[in-house]
C-alpha cells in the first residue's frame, strides 16, 4: 500500500464509524473523501471534514485514493467494487460479505486478468481478527497434542427483531450477515470444505447450517446457528478436541475464552474492557491490511472460497 494511504470511504452508516475511528489513529492514513447519497454532510475526521460526494463515481472524478473502503449495504458491494477497479488504480477493502450472490462473485473473477482483482480486492473478515479468536488459534497451534478439532458449535445472535426491515435492507438475512463471520472464524481453526446441510428459517431471520471441515488429517463437522430473534447480542463458539478430552470455549461478545479438560482449567483469556469490541476487530485488521503482507483471511481468494461455502445455503423461503 506504500508509505502513506489516501483513503476514500464509501457508505457512512453504522460500521463506517468504526472504520473511521480506527483509521484516525493510523498515522500513515489520510481521508481523501467520503461518499454517501443519503448523508448530506461528511463526518469530522481528525478535526476537519473531508470532501464529500453523493457517489463513488463523482468522488473518483476528483480524487486518486490509494484505498477505497466500501461500507455500504451488502447488495451494493459488487457494483461498487467493479466501479472502483475500473475507474481507479486503488486497492479496495469491501465490507463482508464481499458479494450477495454467486453471479456477482463470477463477475468479479472475470475481471481478474484486466483489473488484478486478486491483487487489489480485500474483504473485511473482521471476526477473524477478534482477540479471543486469535487467542484460541494460538492455543491450537501451541497444543498439537490435543489432536484434531472433532466438533465445533457456533451460535451468533443479533438483536434485530425490532429492526427487522433495516437489518434486511443492509444485511439481507441472518445467515448472509453472520454466516460469513462464522465461516471466517472457522477458517482460523480448521479448513472448512463443504456446507453439508443448510436451512434459512423464520423468513431469513434465523438459520441452521452444518459445515464439514478438515482438522489435522481428520474430518469434523461444525454446527452453525444464526438468529436475529432476540433482544440482545450474544455470540459464542465451542471447539471440542475429542481425542484429548479438551474443550475451548470462546465468547465473541465479551471477547473472553477458556480451555478445559474435564474439571481441569487449562488456559484462560480475558481483557481489560477498555477497547470497544468492533475497534478490537478493525484495528488489527487495518494494521494487517496496511502492512506489506496482508493476512490471507483478507484476500480475494479466501473471500471467494468462503462465498462459495456461504452460498451453498438455499435462499430464505425455499423450504429446505
Ligand atoms: N453494522 C455492523 O456492525 C457491521 C459489522 C461488520 C460489517 N458490516 C457490513 O457493513 C456493510 C454496511 O453495514 P452498516 O451496518 O454500516 O449499514 P448501514 O445501512 O448502517 O449503512 C450503509 C450506508 O451506505 C450508504 N449507501 C447505500 N448505497 C450507497 C452507495 N451506492 N454509495 C455510497 N453509499 C451508499 C447508505 O446511505 C448508508 O449510510 C454491510 O455489508 C454489513 O454486512 C456491518
UniProtKB/TrEMBL annotation:
Pfam families according to UniProt: GFO_IDH_MocA (PF01408)
GO molecular function annotations of the record: nucleotide binding
Domain of life: Bacteria
Ranges for domain Gfo/Idh/MocA-like oxidoreductase N-terminal: 6-118
Coiled coil: none
UniProt protein name: Gfo/Idh/MocA-like oxidoreductase N-terminal domain-containing protein
Species, as recorded: Streptomyces carminius
Lineage: Bacteria, Bacillati, Actinomycetota, Actinomycetes, Kitasatosporales
Amino acid at each position: 500500500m506504500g508509505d502513506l494511504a489516501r483513503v476514500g470511504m464509501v457508505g457512512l452508516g453504522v460500521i463506517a464509524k468504526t472504520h473511521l475511528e480506527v483509521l484516525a489513529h493510523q498515522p500513515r492514513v489520510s481521508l481523501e473523501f467520503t461518499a454517501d447519497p443519503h448523508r448530506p454532510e461528511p463526518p469530522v475526521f481528525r478535526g476537519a471534514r473531508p470532501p464529500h460526494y453523493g457517489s463513488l463515481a463523482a468522488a473518483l472524478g476528483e480524487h486518486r485514493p490509494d484505498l477505497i473502503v466500501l461500507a455500504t449495504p451488502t447488495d451494493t458491494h459488487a457494483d461498487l467494487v467493479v466501479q472502483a477497479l475500473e475507474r481507479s488504480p486503488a486497492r479496495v477493502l469491501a465490507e463482508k460479505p464481499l458479494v450477495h450472490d454467486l453471479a456477482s462473485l463470477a463477475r468479479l473473477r472475470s475481471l481478474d486478468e484486466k483489473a488484478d482483482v486478486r491483487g487489489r480486492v480485500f474483504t473485511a473478515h473482521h471476526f477473524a481478527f477478534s482477540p479471543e479468536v486469535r487467542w484460541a488459534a494460538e492455543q491450537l497451534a501451541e497444543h498439537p497434542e490435543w489432536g484434531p478439532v472433532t466438533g465445533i458449535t457456533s451460535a451468533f445472535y443479533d438483536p434485530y427483531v425490532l429492526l427487522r426491515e433495516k437489518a434486511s435492507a443492509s444485511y439481507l438475512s441472518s445467515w448472509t450477515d453472520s454466516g460469513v463471520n462464522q465461516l471466517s472464524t472457522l477458517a482460523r481453526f480448521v479448513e472448512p470444505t463443504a456446507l453439508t446441510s443448510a436451512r434459512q428459517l423464520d423468513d431469513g431471520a434465523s438459520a441452521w447450517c452444518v459445515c464439514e471441515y478438515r482438522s489435522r488429517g481428520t474430518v469434523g463437522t461444525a454446527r452453525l446457528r444464526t438468529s436475529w430473534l432476540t433482544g440482545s447480542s450474544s455470540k459464542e463458539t465451542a471447539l471440542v478436541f475429542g481425542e484429548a478430552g479438551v474443550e475451548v470455549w470462546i465468547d465473541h461478545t465479551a471477547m473472553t475464552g477458556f480451555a478445559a479438560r474435564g474439571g481441569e482449567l487449562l488456559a484462560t483469556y480475558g481483557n481489560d474492557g477498555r477497547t470497544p469490541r468492533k475497534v478490537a476487530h478493525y484495528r488489527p485488521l487495518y494494521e494487517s491490511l496496511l502492512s506489506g503482507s496482508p493476512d490471507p483471511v483478507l484476500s480475494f481468494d479466501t473471500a471467494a472460497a468462503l462465498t462459495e461455502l456461504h452460498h451453498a445455503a438455499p435462499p430464505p423461503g425455499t423450504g429446505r
